[in-house]
Amino acid sequence: MPHIHLSKTSTNPPKGLNKEKTKARTAKLIAELDDLQNLLYAEGKHSILIVIQGIDASGKDGAMRNVFGKMNPQGVMVKSFKAPTAEELSHDFLWRIHNHAPARGMIQVFNRSQYEDILITRVHKWCDDETARKRMKAINDFEQLLVQHNDTHILKFYLHISKEEQTKRLKARIKDPQKQWKYNSQDLKESKLWDIYMKMYEDCFRYCDKVPWIITPSDHNWYKEYVLAEALHKLLKGLNMQYPGLKK
Description:
Elements: H1 19-43, E1 47-54, H2 60-68, E2 76-80, H3 86-89, H4 95-98, E3 107-111, H5 120-123, H6 129-150, E4 152-160, H7 163-175, H8 185-191, H9 194-207, E5 213-217, H10 221-237
Parallel strand pairs: 1-3, 1-4, 2-3, 4-5
Helix pairs in contact: 1-10, 2-10
């Protein structure tokens, strides 16, 4: 894909887009996603991997709750990848990821993903550029393995918020009792590394693009949720799935 400059990419919905009409459209899409997910599960021919990446406070948890939380939990799995454990570090960096790749009939959502190993690790210089390039190739190969050998369809979203919006949301975590549980003093320290994170993300989009990224303007949650729901709906409808008949 063309080189993406995040500083020149809007974090807001397209001008003129009606908020209420879009929210109504999103609700309709989510209702239909429930039926489509059931069909995916019943047919058992395809699997879906949804990767959600974004800077701290970009709205990853809310997106999963509001878009994917309406579907049958038997057919949707969510995995949040945090700092690797000692056991995970003793294996190759994709070991813990591959273990959660979706089976046929399933939708698997990654809250953060294999991309953390070429993002935060590079920001803090735990991983040098040469190692990062090797990991990028391995990630491309891994995704193609899933696509070509397990009928996996991959959607990769980057939730794109502005630095100003991130600051606003991080401060809200301190003041709002319902959000204080999310507060982590480390988040404010990480936010000071904004420019480095943006550079690492741009490299990620440039070199790990065998499966294209969907850059999702996310300063407004209603538009972010619409983009995610619409992309998944379009993908599932395009599979032309059918319910299996009676077994003979």
